[in-house]
Write a sequence for this structure.
């Protein structure tokens, strides 16, 4: 194998695959990046068995061939070079990159047929719309794979909307977009796959086609192919949580002031050993008082508000509240009934983005 490629392009490609490749003691070949040079095109392939990523680029190919190696060390080396173009060539189980040599992996056991055909196209959506949908909901998905049913984002495709839902059982985020799908399908996409995909499409401009093949969801754009297995465990019935609720209290806050106050309180609340990230919120008259304490410090912040309903006090996980607020662009609304019932948070003129937050036990 022998080909020339732009250094900056190679850095970008290797960086993308390092997000996917993982050490696998049972099958070490899985930790390698497969590079195939073939008549003016170079195809890069990586997998961790849950996710497959394939990217092809046009290059000056001098000799066709296939190699598999671990790109981590090579990436650090390439970043230090100044050359505009880099030559990659292989000979005697060694990959030469510029003036360095890297050991190759034996590639007979590398998985084949990683690029599955798409059975049906579910939707076509702007890359930035898809990226925004995942980013604005993934923070409330269960972070651990101990509960796979909620360690994901539920993505709902309908002919009049595409929606994204996540929950960790203490909170729930719902985002409905005006993007339209070609068919009605629901998929639970694992959080790990979401995080990888977001890194890949963050700077992509253009549409992304979404299709499926059995229990695999496939995303294609430009010369890139991304496959992820979906979670088949049942997702919680979030419709029952979102619909039919009535609230006796509603508070409106200036976005900038509210976000600033929450951030300040969080600096103390996160250090509390008794109730990590816990804070007391007292809604009284036209002021909200937010207080938190730990063994090291105490803090109290006051924020102006417009309130409907009686005064009351509650305890909330201030980090969970801040996670949603920092995703808003306009004034925030908090609706509730009591210190022991769920709260709903939205923003001005946007009922398509909702956040449900359960309270903490209120300590006197």
């Amino acid at each position: 194998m022998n080909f020339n490629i732009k250094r900056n392009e190679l850095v970008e490609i290797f960086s993308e695959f390092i997000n996917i490749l993982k050490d696998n003691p049972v099958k070490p070949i899985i930790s390698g990046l497969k590079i195939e040079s073939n008549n003016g095109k170079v195809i890069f392939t990586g997998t961790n068995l849950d996710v497959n990523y394939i990217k092809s680029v046009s290059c000056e190919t001098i000799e066709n061939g296939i190699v598999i190696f671990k790109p981590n060390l090579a990436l650090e080396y390439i970043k230090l070079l100044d050359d505009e173009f880099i030559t990659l060539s292989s000979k005697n189980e060694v990959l030469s990159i510029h003036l360095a040599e890297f050991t190759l992996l034996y590639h007979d056991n590398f998985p084949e047929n990683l690029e599955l055909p798409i059975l049906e196209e579910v939707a076509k959506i702007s890359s930035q719309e898809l990226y925004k949908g995942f980013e604005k909901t993934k923070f409330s998905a269960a972070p651990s794979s101990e509960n796979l049913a909620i360690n994901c984002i539920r993505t709902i495709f309908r002919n009049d909307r595409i929606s994204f839902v996540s929950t960790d059982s203490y909170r729930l985020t719902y985002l409905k977009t005006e993007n339209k799908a070609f068919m009605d399908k629901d998929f639970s996409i694992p959080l790990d796959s979401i995080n990888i995909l977001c890194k890949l499409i963050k700077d992509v401009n253009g549409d992304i086609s979404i299709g499926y093949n059995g229990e695999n969801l496939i995303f294609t754009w430009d010369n890139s192919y991304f496959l992820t297995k979906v979670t088949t465990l049942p997702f919680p019935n979030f419709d029952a949580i979102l619909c039919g609720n009535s609230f006796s209290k509603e508070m409106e806050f200036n976005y900038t002031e509210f976000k600033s106050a929450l951030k300040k309180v969080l600096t103390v609340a996160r250090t509390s050993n008794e109730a990590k990230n816990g804070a007391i919120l007292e809604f009284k008259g036209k002021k909200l008082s937010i207080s938190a304490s730990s063994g090291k410090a105490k803090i109290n912040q006051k924020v102006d508000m417009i309130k409907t309903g009686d005064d009351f006090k509650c305890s909330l996980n201030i980090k969970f509240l801040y996670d949603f607020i920092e995703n808003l662009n306009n004034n925030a609304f908090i609706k509730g009934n009591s210190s022991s019932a769920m709260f709903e948070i939205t923003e001005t003129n946007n009922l398509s983005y909702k956040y449900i937050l359960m309270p903490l036990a209120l300590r006197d």
Observations:
- The chain has three domains: 2-103, 124-216+227-233, 245-357.
- The chain is about 20% helix and 45% strand.
